[in-house]
Specification:
This protein is mainly beta. About 10% of the residues lie in helices and about 50% in strands. The protein is built from three helices and 20 strands. The strands form four sheets. It has an eight-stranded antiparallel barrel. Strand 4 and strand 5 form a beta hairpin. It is rod-shaped. About 20% of the residues are buried.
C-alpha cells in the first residue's frame, strides 16, 4: 500500500522553553473505519491520546508533534478500511507562568498539502487506448469538481482560495470497448491534495459554487440508433462449387447453387439454396473428369459472421443438403486411371467457410465447402469456388 507522510513543522513560540526531552516519544496506532480517511483520522486521535498518557502533560507542559506518517493498509474481510499512523512527539515545559498569547494554527489555515477524498461511481467515454488516460482525466476532473464544491461550501471559501490535485484512486475500474471507442467506469475512492489555485484561476470576484452532492457521474452519450442495414440484411447469391482436382481415382462432387439469405445484426443468419450436382473421378494426374448427368439438390442452414464490420467478413455456414434420388451402376467418365464404379446420390451435411466483402450492393467472395458424406469410399470432400452476392 502507498504511505502518505505528513510532517508538521511547528511555529516558533513567542516565549522561551526549557527542559526539552532529549528524545522524542514514538507512538504507533492502528484503527478501522468505514472510509480510508476516517480510519487514518481515528488512528491519529488515538496516537495523540496515547502520547499524552505517556508524557503526562499538564498546564505547564506543551505536547509537540514532530512527525506523522499515515499508511493505508487496505480493507478487512468485512470491508472496513484499515490505517496505521506512526507519530513522534516532544514534551516541552514553559518557564513562564503567563498564559501564551493566541497563536496562529500550526498548519496553513487552508491546510494546503492535506489529503481529501470522495467516493462515487463515475463513467466517461473517450477514444480507446490501453490505459484509458483520456477517460480517466475526465472522471478525475468531475470527481475533483464535486469534492471541491463540498469543501468550499463547508469551509466558506471560494475557488480563488483552494484547488485540488489528483493523488490516486482505490476501487474497481471497468473497460468497455466498442471498436475504437472506450467507456471507462470507476467505482471507489478518489484522493486529492489541497493546493493553491493557479494564478490565472484566482480571482476575488469568483463566485462560490452552488452546492452539489459528493457523488457525481458523467453521462454517457447514447449511441446513435443503427440503421436498417445493421439490423437486417437480405442477400441473393450464386456460387460455383467446383472440385477440379483430387487424389488419383477419388470420387469428387461439384455443384452450382443459387440461394437467398437473411442476416440479423450483421452476425447470425439463415439461408436456403437450390441447384444441381454431379459426380466425377480424378485421373492419374489428379484432374477430375465429371460425368454429364446432373441431379437436383436443395439445402437449408444457419451461419455466423466472424467479423462485425462492413468491409470484409468470414461467413461460416452449416447446411443440410437434400439430394434428388439419383443412381448409376457404372459411373465412368472415361479417363486414364479412373476406375468405373457404382454411385448413388444421398442427403448429407455440408460445412462452408466464405471469405467475402460485406457491403450493401454487390459482393464477391471465395467459398470452401466440405461435403460430409461417410457412405462414399475414396471420396474427396473438399471443394471450392467463386461466390457472387447482391446484398440489400
Amino acid at each position: 500500500m502507498r504511505a502518505i507522510a505528513f510532517v508538521f513543522m511547528l511555529a516558533i513560540a513567542p516565549w522561551a522553553w526549557s527542559e526539552t526531552r532529549a528524545e522524542p516519544v514514538s507512538v504507533s496506532t492502528i484503527a478501522f473505519a468505514d472510509t480510508q480517511s476516517g480510519a487514518c483520522n481515528l488512528a491519529f486521535e488515538r496516537a495523540e491520546d496515547d502520547a499524552r498518557s505517556k508524557l503526562g502533560t499538564s498546564d505547564e507542559v506543551r505536547l509537540e508533534l514532530v512527525s506523522r506518517t499515515d499508511e493505508r493498509l487496505g480493507t478487512t474481510d468485512d470491508g472496513r478500511f484499515e490505517c496505521q499512523v506512526e507519530t513522534l512527539w516532544l514534551e516541552r515545559q514553559s518557564i513562564t507562568t503567563e498564559p501564551p498569547a493566541p497563536q496562529s494554527p500550526v498548519n496553513d489555515p487552508l491546510r494546503l498539502g492535506g489529503l481529501e477524498s470522495i467516493e462515487g461511481r463515475y463513467q466517461a467515454d473517450c477514444r480507446a487506448s490501453r490505459r484509458g488516460e483520456a477517460c480517466r482525466e475526465q472522471i478525475e476532473a468531475e470527481a475533483a469538481d464535486a469534492l471541491l464544491n463540498r469543501l468550499l461550501q463547508r469551509e466558506g471559501l471560494s475557488r480563488a482560495d483552494l484547488a485540488l490535485e489528483a493523488d490516486g484512486f482505490e476501487g474497481s475500474q471497468t473497460f468497455d470497448y466498442d471498436q475504437s471507442d472506450l467507456t471507462l467506469t470507476m467505482n471507489g475512492s478518489f484522493y486529492f491534495i489541497r493546493v493553491a489555485p493557479a494564478a490565472e484561476a484566482a480571482s476575488p470576484s469568483t463566485d462560490a459554487p452552488k452546492p452539489v452532492g459528493t457523488q457525481g457521474e458523467l453521462t454517457r452519450a447514447k449511441p446513435a440508433e443503427p440503421g436498417p442495414m445493421d439490423n437486417l440484411d437480405v442477400t441473393l447469391f450464386y456460387v460455383w462449387d467446383g472440385n477440379d482436382s483430387a487424389s488419383q481415382d477419388d470420387l469428387a462432387l461439384s455443384a452450382r447453387r443459387w440461394g437467398v439469405g437473411l442476416w440479423v445484426d450483421n452476425r447470425i443468419g439463415v439461408s436456403a439454396f437450390w441447384g444441381d450436382e454431379r459426380a466425377g473421378i480424378a485421373d492419374s494426374r489428379g484432374k477430375v473428369y465429371n460425368t454429364g448427368d446432373r441431379y437436383d439438390i436443395r439445402g437449408v442452414g444457419i451461419g455466423y459472421r466472424l467479423f462485425d464490420n462492413r468491409s470484409v467478413t468470414v461467413e461460416n455456414m452449416l447446411h443440410y443438403v437434400d439430394a434428388q434420388p439419383y443412381s448409376v451402376a457404372n459411373l465412368d467418365p472415361d479417363c486414364a486411371g479412373c476406375t468405373p464404379r457404382a454411385y448413388e446420390a444421398d442427403d448429407y451435411f455440408q460445412a462452408s467457410i466464405n471469405l467475402k466483402t460485406n457491403n450493401e450492393g454487390l459482393n464477391l467472395g471465395w467459398m470452401l465447402t466440405w461435403k460430409l458424406r461417410d457412405d462414399v469410399t475414396e471420396f474427396d470432400s473438399l471443394s471450392g469456388g467463386w461466390y457472387v452476392e447482391l446484398q440489400f
